[in-house]
Amino acid sequence: MTLEPIVFGTAATLSTLAGGLLTLRLSHRIVLILGVTAGVVLGVAVFDLLPEAITLARDLWHPRSLVAFAALGLGVYMLVDRTMHHAAWLPARWRVHLAPATLTLHSLMDGMGIGIAFQIDTRAGWLVALAVLTHDLADGVNTVSLCLAAKSEEAARRWLVLNGAAPILGVLLGLSIAVPPGMLAPLMAVFAGVFLYIGACELLPRSYARDPRLRTTLASLAGMALMFVVTSIAH
């Protein structure tokens, strides 16, 4: 019972690191990578996090409430992001870390979801773990892409290590603490809102500003389509 979630957590860690290292190796193609990443982030929000939140909600939360939580996540993240960008007292290098930190927190929550799901039921654990694995490669890509977009390869490497460690740490936390299952759906919805902001308001504009040709838009659409296919297979 304990071994299975740890194995999945380790696999999620390796998948995240693989995605990030691949992105570092292909950093000369950062514009197209950013375009695909934008689509992937939006696809994770729309095709993975929101449906997962609705599934977890069962009879505890109304779908309209989950949409409100998603709006809350988007709004709070937007407020923090814009406040940081206009805070003259805040070192500019700190602002680079907000989005990667959010993705790392999401990876930690993914791992906790695996651990908690295995506490509830083995079948539920497998389903959650497979859903997490489907987008962990993208998590590594997204983390590195955001840092490279801010022209900080050093930050990319550091956040990749942290994001890679987050899933297995999350699994261990999920196995050791009792998080009310009823709170998982709102947390998923909040992260969906955050991902919508990162994808639509950060990655899409950055990729398009660097290369406004049609291929960048097609790359973003391909990223969304990829996540639709991957999450459909997983579920």
TrEMBL record:
Membrane topology label: Multi-pass membrane protein
Compartments (UniProt record): Cell membrane
Residue stretches spanning the membrane: 6-24, 31-50, 62-80, 160-179, 185-204, 216-234
The keyword Thylakoid is annotated on this UniProt entry: no
Assigned GO CC terms: plasma membrane
Molecular function per GO: zinc ion transmembrane transporter activity
Family recorded in the similarity comment: Belongs to the ZIP transporter (TC 2.A.5) family.
PANTHER family: ZINC TRANSPORTER ZIP11, ZINC/IRON TRANSPORTER
Protein name, UniProt field: Permease
Lineage, broadest ranks: Bacteria, Pseudomonadati, Pseudomonadota, Alphaproteobacteria, Sphingomonadales
